[in-house]
Design a protein that fits this description.
heterodimer, A: 155 residues, mainly alpha, B: 117 residues, alpha+beta, 3-stranded antiparallel β-sheet, 4 helices, elongated
Chain lengths: 155, 117
């Protein structure tokens, strides 16, 4: 269990130290290839062939670097960051589209908020009384001036 | 052997690296790769570059330690050595691989019942 914790901790640390780690790996690999070339020359190869053989045995410097990065860091977060960067680059390039999209979103959201806050205060929130449903309203009608309501039973 | 070299199974390289460091003492990446190639009788298809992914993984788990030094021919190189936790892990992995290869050997040697084909 301890080693998994260490690994997680170290992976996070490596994620923030990409450049120094890549530099160190580059030096390490250069030294590796140099040693391989020297050994091949000792075995009687010409310099050019020795170098070619060393590279063949190493098997793809760039792939090894990628594999190293994946093993030490947070490849998922790396991919996510790449996607985000790509998104923002695309949005920046399509300036018109971005502006219109943002405006439409802004209008939509603000209209929703406005309508909802009105509906909420008027229709949804209960009246600020103890038993709001048992309230009644009264009004006095001056029947001399105004005709009584049509549905009045007194007529 | 030529073209028909063995592809390494997932996780086998890590054990080979630990074993090499346990037996040989501190070594640089190139030394480890060469030792594994020799010990396996050149039957393993090892792209030497992949050893660095294995090394960083083992290092991050605390099973090996690394520090820069100079090689026999005065070249700057990073030397790896096995740690106490690494030795424990190696003992564990060794037992696992021996059990697994024993089981695989028995299953693959299985014969039809009653001596027929």
């Amino acid at each position: 269990v301890t080693h998994s914790l260490w690994e997680v901790f170290n992976r996070i640390r490596s994620f923030f130290r990409k450049d120094p780690l890549d530099q160190e790996l580059k030096e390490e690999m250069a030294s590796h290839l140099q040693m391989a070339v020297e050994e091949n020359i000792r075995r009687g190869m010409f310099a050019e062939e020795a170098r070619r053989q060393a590279l063949v045995r190493f098997g793809g410097v760039q792939q090894s670097v990628e594999l190293h990065r994946e093993s030490r860091g947070l490849p998922l977060v790396d991919v996510l960051m790449q996607d985000l960067r790509f998104t923002f680059r695309t949005l920046k390039r399509d300036y018109c589209f971005t502006t219109i999209a943002v405006l439409i979103l802004a209008l939509g959201i603000s209209a929703n908020i406005t309508v909802f806050s009105v509906v909420n205060t008027i229709l949804l929130r209960p009246l600020p009384f103890a038993r709001p449903t048992s309230r009644a309203s009264f009004s006095i009608l001056d029947t001399a001036r105004n005709p009584a309501p049509v549905n009045s039973p007194s007529r | 052997m030529g073209q028909s070299k063995l592809d390494l199974l997932q996780g086998t390289l890590d054990v080979m690296v630990l074993q090499t460091l346990e037996v040989m003492g501190p070594l640089h990446g190139y030394g480890i790769a060469r030792r594994i190639e020799q010990a396996s009788g050149n039957e393993v298809l090892l792209n030497q570059g992949t050893i660095y992914a294995s090394l960083v993984r083992l290092q991050q788990r605390g099973w090996i330690a690394a520090k820069w030094g100079t090689s026999d021919n005065n070249r700057k190189a990073k030397f790896y050595s096995i740690t106490k936790a690494g030795k424990k892990q190696l003992a564990h992995d060794t037992a696992y691989w021996q059990r697994l290869s024993g089981v695989m050997g028995r299953v693959l040697a299985m014969q039809g019942e009653g001596g027929k084909e």
